[in-house]
């Protein structure tokens, strides 16, 4: 239980100032009162857990809305609707072959890429090296490493699409391709 310390009046003042606006925003996000009530309560509880730290927050309104936004995102992730497959959708029996064939195509594509792209993709994506470790090893900042890796992935995607005719489904997964 929260002790009635000096942080409580600060919290109550901020809450009274922003509760109505926050409630209206949450109601627009969720579309129903029950979820809005749950999320507004959880936002308030998280503010209470901050105790004295809450008073040191410069923009309490922004903090409250940020917490509420994250709660809305978490709730939507937990409640993703289940979508059954339609009768017209058929599952390809050759999916394992496709992956095996793609595994044969990938080294060929990597060989065609620049040394920098090949190195960062191999170490970070294929061997699982952390981006921070790659940055230290290469003398780059973490931000530069992330940018290089993103650009290398984009170039790899283009080459896979053109040279192996890879197509991705709506979730970004390989659905089919034709090796050349």
TrEMBL record:
One MF annotation (Gene Ontology) recorded for this entry: DNA binding
Annotated RNA polymerase sigma-70 region domain residues: 17-80
Highest taxon, organism lineage: Bacteria
Signal peptide residues on this chain, from the entry's feature table: none
UniProt entry keywords in alphabetical sequence: DNA-binding, Sigma factor, Transcription, Transcription regulation
GO biological process, one term: DNA-templated transcription initiation
Domain RNA polymerase sigma factor 70 region 4 type stretches: 104-156
Family affiliation: Belongs to the sigma-70 factor family. ECF subfamily.
NCBIfam families xrefs: sigma70-ECF
Name of this chain's protein: RNA polymerase sigma factor
């Amino acid at each position: 239980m929260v002790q009635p310390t000096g942080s409580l009046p600060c919290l109550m003042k901020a809450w009274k100032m922003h509760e109505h606006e926050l409630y209206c925003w949450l109601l627009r996000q969720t579309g129903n009162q029950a979820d809005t009530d749950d999320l507004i309560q959880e936002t308030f509880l998280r503010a209470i857990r901050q105790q004295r730290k809450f008073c040191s927050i410069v923009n309490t309104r922004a903090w409250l809305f940020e917490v509420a936004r994250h709660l809305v995102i978490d709730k939507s992730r937990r409640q993703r609707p289940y979508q059954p497959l339609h009768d017209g959708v058929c599952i390809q029996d050759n999916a394992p072959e496709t992956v095996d064939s793609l595994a044969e195509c990938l080294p060929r594509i990597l060989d065609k890429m620049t040394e920098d792209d090949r190195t960062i993709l191999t170490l970070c994506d294929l061997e699982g090296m952390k981006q921070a470790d790659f940055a230290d090893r290469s003398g780059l900042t973490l931000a530069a490493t992330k940018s290089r890796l993103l650009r290398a992935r984009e170039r790899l995607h283009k080459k896979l699409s053109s040279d192996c005719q890879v197509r991705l489904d709506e979730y970004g997964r390989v659905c089919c391709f034709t090796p050349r």
